[in-house]
Amino acid sequence: MSWSSASNRSEVENRLRRIGGQDDAEIDVAEAALLLAALDRPQLSLERYRHHLSLLTRDIADLAEKEGAEASLEARVAVLNAVLVERYGYRGDREDYENLHNANLMRVIDRRRGLPVALGILYLHGARAQGWEICGLSFPGHFLLRLDLGAARAIIDPFHGGETRDAMALRALLKTMAGEKAELRPEHTQPVGCREVLLRLQNNIKQRLVREERSGEALEIVETMLMIAPERGGLWREAGILHSHLDNMRAAILAFEHYLELAAPGEPGRQDIAELLRQLRRQLN
User: Fold this and answer.
1) Beta-carbon neighbour count of residue 166 at 10 Å?
2) Does the pLDDT value for residue 53 go beyond 70?
3) Residue 4: which residues within 8 A CB-CB, separation 6 or more?
4) Does 84 have pLDDT greater than 80?
5) Across residues 246-267, what is the average pLDDT?
6) Is this structure's pTM higher than 0.90?
7) 4 pLDDT above the threshold of 60
8) Which residues of 116-150 are buried (b: 16+ CB within 10 A; e: fewer)?
9) Which end of the chain has a smaller Cβ tally under 10 Å, C or N?
10) Is the CATH number 1.25.40.10 carried by domain 195-284?
11) CA-to-CA distance for 156 and 76, rounded, in angstroms?
12) Contacts 24+ apart (CB under 8 A), 127-136
């Protein structure tokens, strides 16, 4: 890595840590996703990608005015899909779903393909720039969006061309993701904030790296997640486990100590981590 790249990475990390201290409503989810992507590509300028995001919002605004979308939920959905899917060609990567590039927003913009959550961030950015009410949902295994207008709501699947999903389609999708015995529950369609969306984006990368036993790289991703969510005890626990797998015992101890400070007394697994921490301390003595 060149000095310039190292300098850029340091600045990106500082900006992500500032996001970690922001209230959720203050987070620009697309900008934050670009910063996370830039950690993997510190030699590249973000300006081209920011310009692309500005073009998306401009084109959505122009088409929304032309189509009279201000008063129609269906027209808003159609406008988002007309710009993102038809004009710019964004789509879910069904051919190479596990490719790590699908969760890096810079590469998603380059390739016009991505995971549901990465594509969903583009929908969130484009809709919120118009003042439209939109949020991500806590649906398991497949990121979905909800666009609201008054009492009307539309659930959008960004991976499948922005198709809308009714209750029957959601049940079928849930069974595909979680098994035939899974049943749709109210918590599956609860809104999630920007921080949760970003953590879900990074978690996709981390899970793939863990499955491939690339613990060092998985740890780097967990550390990026801690930059934007430093108060998440579960992330400190994961960092400690990965550090211990890599024989970084002192770092594992520090991570587990942070976890125990943040975890509730009765949290499942807390006692196991406390015992593991005692064992690690004995090893260093």
Assistant:
1) 9
2) yes
3) 43
4) yes
5) 95
6) yes
7) no
8) bbbbbbbbbbbbbbbebebbbbebeebbbbbbebe
9) C
10) yes
11) 11
12) 127/60, 127/76, 127/80, 129/57, 129/60, 129/61, 130/57, 130/60, 130/61, 130/64, 132/76, 135/191, 135/192, 135/193, 136/191, 136/192, 136/196, 136/197, 136/200
Topology annotation, domain 3-192: C8orf32 fold (3.10.620)
Domain ranges of the chain: 3-192, 195-284
